[in-house]
Structure prediction request, 119 residues.
Amino acid sequence: MLSFILTFRRMFRGIWRGLKEPEFQVLFSLAALTVMSGTLFYSRFEEMRWLDALYFSVITLTTIGYGDFVPSTDLGKVFTIGYVITGVGIMVGFVTQVFNHLQQARLEEVRKKKTPPSE
Prediction:
């Protein structure tokens, strides 16, 4: 459990660090808008509760796809096709940037430890 909490903390640090860069801000906004649009669509047209719609949106865009929720209408199925095609690329780009920032932070920590204090 401690490992999970530490990993989650590092992930949020990476996001916080990345928010200082305009390119990251755009990816963060696109990822948030994509998840929100899916949540709104599924809650409205698939009649899912908003939490179920959010869960389904995230599970779909991260390509986990447990299969516990599926679109039941033709409109929902068509939307999901486009949602996956566009959303997965956005999410991969966002997650890649988060981990790049995490890696940069780790490298800086290692460099600081190796560099002797200046007098």
